[in-house]
Amino acid sequence: MKRTHIILLVFIALSIGLLVSFMGNLSTYETIASARQNEGKTVTIIAKLDNSLPMEYNPVKDPNYLSFHILDTLGGKAKVVYHYGKPYDMEKAERVVLKGKMNGDIFEITQKDGILIKCPSKYKDDPESAKKELK
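Above: the chain's sequence. Below: its structure in token form.
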């Protein structure tokens, strides 16, 4: 074998190894049921707020504690505990993307950027306003 072939094979092997190591960090979206099966593993869930149950946030008592309930698309329910301050306009959220771990029946978010709020579009119910803004 020529020296260039050996170098090329080593480069290809290193590239494959690098790609495989990055694939371990890819996250997929889970349901609440699958998050319960993978208790303790960090997962990402897309859900909507369950407004039938109260949101618990008392900044005087503990400004770094927020709890609320979510529903996923398959009907799974869970209580969520967030260990940071309440995000702005949380009540208006259409959907939330949560990154955390199941701990029993509670989904715990331990990273500050563990909640992403998906607010409804201001043009969703009023197509005339959307047309005016585009002009």
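The chain has one domain: 28-122.
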